[in-house]
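Fig. S4 source data, part A: sequence.
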Amino acid sequence: METRQRQEENARQQKETARQMKENQQETERFLKENAAALNKQIGSLTNLFGDFTVGMIIPKINDKFYDLGLVFPEASPNRTFNDRENGLAFEIDIMLENGDKAMLIEVKTKLTVERINKHIERLEKMRRYADTHGDSEPKVRRTFLGAVAGFAISDEVREVALKEGFYLIESSGENFNITPPNNKPKEW
C-alpha cells in the first residue's frame, strides 16, 4: 500500500513539474516575442561598436601597409557615405583610401564571409557608376577603384575567394594586421 502511495505521489509531482516547465517555456517565448526588437537593436549596437573598434584598429596603419606594397594613399577616411537617390546609388564604405588617380574601398567585418565579398563587389560596381555620373567618366580624370576586404575571422575558403576575386586581403595578426595582394592582378573598377 505504501509503495502504491509513493508511486501516485511521484506521478502527481512529475505532472506538476511538467506543467511548470511548460508554463516557464511559454513565459520565456512570450518574453522573447515581446522584446525581440529591443534585443535585436542591442545586438546591432554591439555589432556596430565592434565594427567601429575594428576600423579604428586598422586606420592608423593602413596607409603605411599599402605603401609597403607600392600603393600610395595619402588620404584615409572611415565610414564614407555616398547618396545619389536619383540614380539609386546609396551606399557606405567602411574605409576609403584615396590619391589622385586611385581609390581603395575597404570592407571591414569581424567575420568575413563569401556573401560579404559578393556585397563588396556590388558596392564597388555602385561606386564606379556613382563616380561616372558625378564627373569621373572622362578618360583623363577617371579614377581606378580597387577593393580590399578585412576580417578577424576568415576561413580558408573565404580567403581563397577574396584573393581570386582580385581583392587585397587584410587579416589580423596578433596585435597587428597583414595585407595579402590578390592572386593575380588586382581587379579594377
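Fig. S4 source data, part B ends here. Residues 80 and 93 are 5 Å apart (CA to CA).
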